Amino acid sequence: MKSLAAAGIVVMLAATAWVWQLELLSAARQWVASAALLAYAAMLAVYYQRLKWQLSHALAQSVDYLVAYATETGTARALAQKTCKRLEQCGFCAQIVELNQLAGCPIAKRGLLVVASTSGNGDAPRTGNSWLIENNSLQPWQGACFAVLALGDRNYSQFCGFGIAVASHLQQSGLLPLFDPVLVHQADPQSVDFWFRQLKHQHHRK
């Protein structure tokens, strides 16, 4: 889609340069030809935006869960991928995304699931340190359901501090919690399994 628009613009610029090099054309005709090419470029831009919206809308209609991850070492991303796989095995369509990119994603039909690691003593990991920079980035999600799997280390006083903060901010922004944040010490398998059981329980309730 982007390549189509880019190719059209390149063709337009090349054609404009060619037109201006034709000495046989009068100045008036050169301006008319250039204006026509600029109009064509504008038409391509409008077409690209419309196609982008249509694809985004279609994706929003098909995605059941959006699974966002914030990770420093890759553990949260791996668990987010595993969560998507479990959801797909249950017949749901799930899409994975970095938490910092949440603002640009379509709203999922059944809700938002966040797998968030805490870096150090309550700090955000690098893939989750700017997710709230855009004002009102969560406004489209108001009324949607969410759940948080928070990863951390009990050796720190702010155990799972970032994940807890994410859950708190989501709820304050008008999202509805499916259940309390699941806190996991060093990717403990039993705690992770509890996360999957909680999700499965929600599926049965619906």
UniProtKB/TrEMBL annotation:
Cofactor: FMN
Record-level Gene Ontology MF annotations: flavin adenine dinucleotide binding; FMN binding; oxidoreductase activity, acting on NAD(P)H, quinone or similar compound as acceptor
Alphabetized UniProt keyword annotations: Electron transport, Flavoprotein, FMN, Membrane, Transmembrane, Transmembrane helix, Transport
UniProt xrefs under InterPro entries: Flavdoxin-like, Flavodoxin/NO_synth, Flavoprotein-like_sf
Membrane-traversing stretches: 31-48
SUPFAM superfamilies xref list: Flavoproteins (SSF52218)
Span of domain Flavodoxin-like: 65-200
Keyword Transmembrane among record annotations: yes
GO cellular component: cytosol
PANTHER family registered for this protein in UniProt: NADPH OXIDOREDUCTASE A, NITRIC OXIDE SYNTHASE-RELATED
Official protein name in the record: Flavodoxin-like domain-containing protein
Organism encoding this protein: Marinobacter psychrophilus
Lineage: Bacteria, Pseudomonadati, Pseudomonadota, Gammaproteobacteria, Pseudomonadales
